Amino acid sequence: MEQKRFEFHNNNILEKKMKRREVLEKNKALDEIIRNAASIDKDHLQLFPPFRQYNRNGLSVYLESGYGSQLSSPMKQYIQNLLKVNMEGLYGSEWPTEEKVKRREMVAPEARYIFVREARNASVDEISPKAKEEKNCSRWMGDGDPVVGFVEYRYIVEEEIPVAYVYELQLEHHVQGKGLGKFLMQLIELIARKNRMSAVMLTVQKANLLAMNFYTSKLRYMISTISPSRVDPLIGAKKSYEILCKAFDHEAKEKLEDAYTLVGEGHGQ
Questions:
Q1: What's the angle, vertex CA 86, arms to CA 57 and CA 42, rounded to 5?
Q2: Which of 100, 174, 192, 239 could form a Cys-Cys staple with 164, CB 3.0–4.6 A?
Q3: How far apart are CA 86 and CA 184, in angstroms?
Q4: Phi-psi region for residue 111, left (φ > 0), alpha (ψ -120 to 50) or beta?
Q5: Do 244 and 143 share a structural domain?
């Protein structure tokens, strides 16, 4: 009897050591994936030449990469202005606090950007009179072709899953509703897959009904298991946002979606 107890004890210790080793190895592998994806030497647009330009629906724009640690002063100001124009009304009284958070996030070394610039033949001098009259339309004040929008994203780990997390997708008013947002999100998904991410995630304000519909209906994103409304409906009801997800493999679906009902079918950015 004593021998069996001793053997059981040893087996238990061995099993714990093996599990600990598995966890360490997995964490090491995740760190390596994130480090390789986030390399500042890597231009994520280079592998997708067809996505470097968008010439549809009256738009003529092109894309370029950027990094949070290398933003010029005009670019920082532009990002802040466009965020204020597009998001202040949605956040309401929370905006002053949220704006400070976004300013810190904006320049983080791990922040990656895709900037959208209008080609010269579609500069601000040639946009429609209606767009020129738009009171809240932000304008680029730096050098080069006008910037008319941007995507900010990072590579992080959620629930032991490597993901590309979209912090911002912001477009000026006169380039919205022309398929550009969908084009940019499709590009982010391609970049994520290429860099061995298992999902794309993002946060959407509940008050932003257009964005919520865009992501859930047009792009088929789901409310994630880590969104407050899924973690605890009572707490989630008091939160102003949802976390959305599109998983690419079984493990990511299991941990980050954990459901087979699309958001658009069961729920009302």
A1: 70
A2: 192
A3: 17
A4: beta
A5: yes
Query: Are 159 and 180 found together in one domain?
Result: yes
Give dist(CA 135, CA 31) in Å, integer. Answer: 45
Residue with tokens 């729920």: 267
Place of tokens 């390399």: 39
| Shared-domain flag, residues 87 and 154 | yes
Give a yes or no: residue 80 inside a domain: yes
CB neighbourhood size of 266 (10 A): 11
| DSSP string covering 62-82 | EEEEEEGGG--HHHHHHHHHH
Per-residue pLDDT of the chain (269 residues; tens, 9 = 90+): 555 555 555 667 767 777 777 778 888 899 999 999 988 777 889 999 999 999 999 999 999 999 999 999 999 999 999 999 999 999 999 999 999 999 999 999 999 999 999 987 654 444 555 544 443 444 798 899 999 999 999 999 999 999 999 999 999 999 999 999 999 999 999 999 999 999 999 999 999 999 999 999 999 999 999 999 999 999 999 999 999 999 999 999 999 998 544 444 433 34
**What dihedral do alpha carbons 204, 209, 212, 216 form, nearest 10°?**
170
Q: Are residues 90 and 148 in the same domain?
A: yes
Pair 97, 171 in one domain: yes
In a domain, 145, yes or no: yes
Helix (H, G, I), strand (E, B) or coil at 222: strand
Looking at the structure, do residues 32 and 149 belong to the same domain, yes or no? no
| Euclidean distance between CA atoms 222 and 246, whole angstroms | 6
d(CA 153, CA 67): 10
Split into its structural domains, the chain has a count of: 2
Domain interval for residue 32: 1-38
Neighbours of 212 (CB within 10 A): 22
Are 22 and 147 part of one and the same domain?
no
